[in-house]
Amino acid sequence: MAITTGISVHCYNLEAVGGIRHLLIRAFDGTDVILYGNTTNTHEITSIKEGASSAEWFLFEFRNETPILNCTAARENGSTSFECSVQFSVPNMTNAKLASFQQMLDQCMMVMAVGNNGKAYVIGASQKYSNAVATDRSQTFCSLTALEGTTGAAYNDDNNQVVTLSCKQYELPRMYDAANITYYNTGLMAQTT
After folding, report:
1. CA 193 to each of CA 34, 88, 160: distance values in angstroms, whole numbers, following the listed order
2. I need a labelling partner for 32 at 20 to 30 A (CA). Which of 7, 19, 54, 160 fits?
3. Is 19 left (phi over 0), alpha (psi -120 to 50) or beta?
4. Three-class DSSP category at 27
5. How distant, in Å, are the alpha carbons of 5, 41, 84, 87, 185 from that of 145?
6. DSSP string, 111-167
7. Per-residue pLDDT tens digits for 47-103
């Protein structure tokens, strides 16, 4: 792909809000259908479904101002790879929270980081080098790569889990239109179409 346009920076870009509002996480399903948008001005996912139905996601909250989405590019032998990770801190370890993390141990996941700026960034779902026959067999999925828990030693120490989900993909994270995310009124769930 050739370079077809430049990048401008406006005043409102400099006043943008950083940080992540919440994470949406789901395991790949054998019936997943992911549609990608590739134009001169877009690098996005236009649809994520389970077969013909909406895809369900689990919403994860965390201690404010702790999550970070980080992508690092490396070029080797003519191929560029991106190591992407999202790290977040969940306070007050409980049996239910530990069980949720335990479920992640052997899952192939995709993660959507919804920023405070209203933008949704998807990692773990990549079109480049994806499995053309079965989306769920793509090897660019996210997995639980680190989990650090502490009870703290002093009364005012944090009691929390720091979770890291990572993937190796061969393109930058894709955007998903946050307006196409439907949040359930009850439970910590959402859906995409």
Report:
1. 10, 26, 34
2. 19
3. left
4. strand
5. 37, 33, 11, 10, 31
6. EEEEETTS-EEEES--STT--SS-GGG-TT-BEEEEEEEE--SSTTS--EEEEEEEE
7. 999 999 999 999 999 998 899 999 999 999 988 999 999 999 999 999 999 999 999
Contacts of 117 (CB under 8 A, 6+ apart): 16, 17, 18
Angle formed at CA 87 by CA 38 and CA 15, multiple of 5 degrees: 65
pTM score of the predicted model: 0.89
Distance CA 101, CA 82 (A): 24
* Alpha carbons 169 and 172: distance in angstroms, whole number: 8
**Residue 22 identity (one-letter amino acid):** H
